[in-house]
Amino acid sequence: MTISAVPATTFDPAGPHAPSLSRLTDPELYAEGDPHPLWAWMRAHAPVHRQHAGELPAFWSLTRYADIRAVYQDSTTFSSAQGVLLRPAVVGPDPGGGLTLALTDAPRHKQLRSLMAGWFNTRAVRALEGYVEAAVRRVLDDAAARETCDFATDIAGRLSLAVIAHILGVPEADHDRLYRWTDEAFAAHSSLVSHPDIVEYFLDLLYRRMEEPTGDLVSALLHGTVGGELLTEIEVVLNCENLIGATENGRLALIGGVQALLEHPGEWRRLARDRSLLPGAIEEIMRWTSSATHSVRTATRPSELHGRSIAAGDKVVLWLPSANRDEDMFTDPYRFDISRTPNRHIALAVGEHFCIGATLARAQMRVLFSELLDGAYAIELDGPGRRVASIAVNGPQSLPVRLRAR
Ligand code: HEM
Q: What is the pLDDT at residue 81?
């Protein structure tokens, strides 16, 4: 099977028969099938849909752009502290609940975010650009030295991990093993905290930073305070794990982005000719790939949406790729158009939990795509790849390419 960022949409959303919506929580749909027809049908016919699938708790699905945006922006009614991803009830609550950046509510969230914000703002990312450029050249040269390579692991994975590890303060000599462990955890679709080597590694790193603080993010987490108190060791480790895990979205956007450009050679040529299109192309890649598949929120009080009553304690699932194909928001939403204007996608969420890595993710894309467009390398797809079998993130699990230095 040839993979595609957006497989062909053959389902007629206006058709009379409701599709089987329980498939939405089947990871195989994202690996082998096409969730977009289901979302299109839901946007048209069931924009606030209650479902109960297998081991997952019952939840409401939201698929329209405007509704998803409104929920993100009302963090008083829709809390993040009980988890932001669907988890089987048997595995219990997310261990990061109330502790990690993504899984806290105001006012704690704001304080925790301000501890980290200085590492991800425009100034910090500009200062990091030289490191990103060197990392991009290194992974491309290594990959070009081989006959064939997997863009997902050999290029995007190594690059994303190197950059976040550098920010956290992981010494260069440890990048390879950290990469191996995170790769194993992602491949097993397990949480990074369930990988004992990762937890042990960060505990060891934080003990070293306790004795000798440096200018890295681990030191900042260790010595900064939230609510007047230092973070506990487990909070520091969980936040490191949260940052590495969140980077997976950036990695998938890089892979999905290069795939989208290679599958739309006209757009690639347009971009190569006119580099002023690059910022817009990056936004379109984020809309198109929408690598974060869903966010969960838990209602803190009763509310009503399109006549449906959402009770306190109910889980609400926001399907981001659906919002980013909403025909009420985007003209010709299934077309990949690097000059799309306006392009108010919400791949990075909106509101208080807007992706803290947004500037970094854009910078990595800019540097990597610029290097590929500059003509120093020739790149082409090299056979079919696979898509990730997950309901949390989506995109190519592997993307075989032929890359050579010219
Ligand atoms: C194109 C790439 C990316 C996409 C599509 C993306 C998407 C998202 C989304 C949708 C959220 C909101 C989650 C929620 O509240 O339910 C989020 C939050 C977050 N992202 Fe990203 N992300 C990307 C890249 C990155 C990178 C490279 C990092 C690394 C630092 C990162 C770190 C985070 C963190 C820590 C949060 C939690 C922010 C908070 O709750 O205040 N993301 N991201």
A: 97
